[in-house]
Write a structure and sequence with these properties.
There is one protein chain. The protein has five helices and seven strands, in the order βααβββββαβαα. By secondary structure, the chain is α+β, with helices and mostly antiparallel strands. The protein has a single domain, classed as Structural Genomics Hypothetical 15.5 Kd Protein In mrcA-pckA Intergenic Region, Chain A, CATH 3.10.290.10. β2 and β3 form a beta hairpin. α1 packs across α2.
Length: 129
């Protein structure tokens, strides 16, 4: 059985529940003001408690996570589900889809620039969307 910790730093928790790949990335996000609890920016050393809502700004989306338990060491993804709940509103998640359709076309490498005919077809498709 995994032992829950009483005092756990926010940067360590963010790393342990797999919101960030490394603890230094979690710490850096705190320092840059991208981690909020109760609408306040937090330092990496802030002690986290069960039941708190953690806001993670990752432009253009602000994710929301509820702390269900304290996990100090990185575990498998199956175990992490018991310690964090993603409560991000659906409107925020839709912002990612909007960003994908922001006007950039994806072209395979080595094909080169579009021809005049291809450019006209691309413009027609954009007008329909």
């Amino acid at each position: 059985m995994i032992k829950e910790e009483d005092n756990l730093r926010i940067d360590k928790w963010l790393w342990a529940v797999r919101i960030f790949k490394t603890r230094s990335q979690a710490s850096e996000a705190c320092k840059k003001g991208r981690i909020l609890i109760e609408d306040l920016q937090v330092k990496p050393s802030r002690i986290i408690k069960k039941g708190e809502i953690v806001f993670v700004k990752s432009p253009p989306v602000t994710y929301q996570f509820k702390v269900l338990g304290l996990l100090g060491k990185r575990q498998s993804a199956k175990i992490v589900v018991d310690y964090v709940e993603d409560i991000t509103p659906e409107e925020e998640k839709l912002k990612l889809d909007m960003k994908r359709f922001s006007g950039f076309e994806i072209r395979d490498r080595g094909i080169g620039r579009p021809t005049k005919r291809e450019r006209r077809l691309i413009d027609q498709l954009k007008k329909k969307i």
